[in-house]
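Work package 3, deliverable 3.1, input record:
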Amino acid sequence: MATRVYVPRETAAVSVGADDVAIAIARCAKENGEAIELVRNGSWGATWLEPLVEVLVDDKRIAYCNVAAGDVPALFDAGFLHGGEHKSCLGAINEIPYLINQDRWTFWRCGLIEPLNIDDFRAHQGFNAFEKAVEMGAEAVIEAVKTSGLRGRGGAGFPAGIKWQTVADTDGEQKYIACNADEGDSGTFSDRILMEGDPLGLIEGMMIAGFAVGATRGYIYLRSEYPLTHSILSRAIETARSAGWLGDDIQGSGFDFDIELHLGAGSYVCGEETAMLESLEGKQGIVRYKPPLPAHEGLFGKPTVVNNVVTLASVANIMNLGGQKYASFGVDRSKGTLAFQLAGNIKRGGLVEKGFGITLRELIEDWGGGTASGRPVKAVQVGGPLGAYIPAEQLDTPLDYEAFIEIGAMVGHGGIVVFDDTANMAQQARFAMEFCAIESCGKCTPCRIGSTRGVEVIDRMVAGDAREDNYDLLVELCDTMEDASLCAMGGMTPFPVRSVLKYFAEDFASAVGADK
Amino acid sequence: MTHEPYDKQIASDIVARFDARPEMLVQILHAFVARFAWICEDAIRQLALELNLSRAEVHGVVSYYHDFRTEAPGKHIVKICEAEACQAMGSRKLSAYATANLDGEDVTLEPVYCLGNCACSPAIMVDGKTYGRVSNERFDEIMASLGECG
């Protein structure tokens, strides 16, 4: 019988050679006369171990980490098709602490299944949640989402059940589900891991949302920086359609729903929901005034649920296991789990799905193993480029929406970017302003002009030109941007800047001569 | 990467594939870039005509998005991630190295703000393919491998 070998087809794994490893394994198997069945699964999210190859031996998936194409002949010599000993062998995948100590609610199929194999998906509860939703009825679905306490995982943290209720209650012949897959925050990749590892899981989440609010069309707005994701997701949509899980009268349920996949075009601000809607309409991604809320007048002026990938994908298990069960994870008003992403200067980077309330220190030290460089942590940016730089002294802060607001930071989409003590934070503050200047949509003045002025003021501070006066000016500029910008781009760019002023002010002096 | 010169008929066929829906403009422009590498003045004119939009509207969309270049790129397009996670792993130094080493080559070098490969920083994208854990040496290897393939 052919031995089953898993090699992930996921951006991070492929970016460090997984395709070459798959080719080498197929070639070596042929040369050695060994019959194998090569499965391209998604990633488990233990990115630091990629390429992570698994071999199915006696119902156990034996893992081999950081495999390079050049290692493959030696692996064959070591008998890895039979679970043979090799320095890269980690034992069974379901015994790796990094993975088993997580609370895998939303990402449990990632790595486990063959993403585009609908039978495999079905064998792992795929579409059970949709069937259950149809059985429960739309109102009960929305109630379950409310009970779960699920908040928008894109960053803003708005309660998903209330958003769904609003769209359900709004009159409109045509309603839409718009899935925000424009994962632009640096340090985040959970949407991508989900879409590459369990694309049908996202489709199912969108179907449930559509059923709950009475929407018959869904759009996925995927960033163009994810070409592999695009290829996997478009095939998943085709697969679902041809198997009768998208289209008219899905599986005899009487419910019609289909999905169209759109690509973004390199604009960060299109991750803001109204800019995304403009872009989905084929226009410049310029932010809209709110109100009207997208729930009332969204895509093409119709009532629209705009939810992030992880939000939608989390709903399936809320149907399967109940809203109460989801709410049993997490703390206070931050219920459930979040897929934290360990990134930047970290030894064991990857995705860690855990209930809210875990501390930054636990994530960075216990899971992440500290910095990749081995040097002390200087600062941690949580929640993307608009998130504050948190100093090492505050690593004991629990990951919880409210606890983070209290320290002037934000959880956002759960990206955690670690910097060691060689980082110059004044340079990072300058970058925050520079990035805002590059990516501002230009609609409001504080963001469009303020960001450019911010770069100039920081440059003067770094140059030692009237540093104290310029400090005051920068604070005032931050106030203006925060109070008067139309969206989070201009409104939150001051967060990282202020945090640098507060915790790393000395870096403005030492940045002299630093390259920009 | 090889691209064809702009061709009105091919362009028209692409527009037809999207049923000439004006809301598909961003998607059509992606298809144009995939085929012709960049958006020329003729393309803007033709899109305005076929989608029943003003040239200003089409120009506005083209110039708004980073992905739609209005000049022919080099033979290879190298994007180096310069967002925070990669900065934390030395992307500024990698950019400087690349700039110095690609001088005189027929390569378009530009920054990109996040490739979503933040646990394998620094990351780059070469001709649409993402690479992670890119040291200077690995950067040289990647560039050399392009040469071999032509």
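Chain A has four domains: 3-100, 118-327, 330-420, 425-510.
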